[in-house]
TrEMBL record:
Protein task: Catalyzes the oxidation of 5,10-methylenetetrahydrofolate to 5,10-methenyltetrahydrofolate and then the hydrolysis of 5,10-methenyltetrahydrofolate to 10-formyltetrahydrofolate.
Binding site for NADP(+): 165-167, 235
EC nos: 1.5.1.5, 3.5.4.9
Protein name per its UniProtKB record: Bifunctional protein FolD
Keyword entries, A-Z: Amino-acid biosynthesis, Histidine biosynthesis, Hydrolase, Methionine biosynthesis, Multifunctional enzyme, NADP, One-carbon metabolism, Oxidoreductase, Purine biosynthesis
Pathway info: One-carbon metabolism; tetrahydrofolate interconversion
Amino acid sequence: MSAKIIDGKAISGQIKGEIAEETKKLKGKGIVPGLGFILVGDDPASRTYVRMKGKACEAVGFHSVTQKLPPDTTQAELMKWVTQFNLDPDISGFLVQLPLPDHLDETEVIEAVDPNKDVDCFNPYNVGRLPSGREAFAPCTPAGVIELLMRSGYDPAGRHVVIVGRSSIVGRPLATLLSRKAPGGNATVTLCHSRSGDLTYFLKQADIVVAAIGSPEMIHGDMIKPGCVVIDVGVNRVEVPKEVNEKGYRLVGDVHFDSAREVAEAITPVPGGVGPMTIAMLLKNTLRAAQRKA
Ligand SMILES: NC(=O)c1ccc[n+]([C@@H]2O[C@H](COP(=O)([O-])OP(=O)(O)OC[C@H]3O[C@@H](n4cnc5c(N)ncnc54)[C@H](OP(=O)(O)O)[C@@H]3O)[C@@H](O)[C@H]2O)c1
């Protein structure tokens, strides 16, 4: 068996098309959705992420602003920019790109973002509203995983989903969303982590596997149930000789794609699976912020 590929790039393209249509309607009312980024330091991955998100804004007709700050920015200076973005009427939503340099207090920054502009859904106010289904914004990567499943015909309702990884940005909010009595939810959820013991024991029971570990190609085909659906959130750089790839690395997920593909019914690739969906959900949250203001 060779699994169907769940094409996150194509599905996110559909969503962006829908967002662009809604943006046109808002612009007709004189409102342009605006997404802001605060980027501290020179981390190349963070720069790339912010650039990609900025491009995505352009593609759907949003206005975007990036405030770049030097690596030695003080906490006070950073907080000043957060306040400025909170108050800026042209910014519907914004995010402070993480991780921050070690000397900065991430928690203080996240808690200072106005919940009405918290399009990453990291502020504890928004996180706390998730279980009740009364959230303003959906956390981007978990929401992207659910949207991918729904739009490719794998509604999680009634299925057993095993998530590996319990981070506060992926695994845990995803478990919350999937277990809600709401569309995109109604799943039975098992949340595994580094202390779960025999992972294969849990994975073999999963109708849907979600890997969010940060460990290259850790889940192999012989660890999963035949016919399951595999969503690979992991993005890992693996070094390869420059003759193979001029960058000197390639991106792989947390799932060993070739072996899992032989066992699963459907699987997401890395790259081109969950990654583009995360950006699409960020745009969706920004649109929602602008619509709420309207
Ligand atoms: N595509 C996207 O848009 C997107 C977005 C976010 C993250 N990611 C990627 O997703 C991956 C996970 O990110 P994250 O921020 O959630 O990572 P994280 O904060 O490092 O969390 C990793 C989780 O994996 C668990 N884990 C580690 N080793 C394990 C093992 N051997 N067996 C079982 N569980 C294990 C950890 O368990 P403990 O809690 O016990 O330590 C932890 O809960 C990374 O590759 C990241 O780059 C992708």
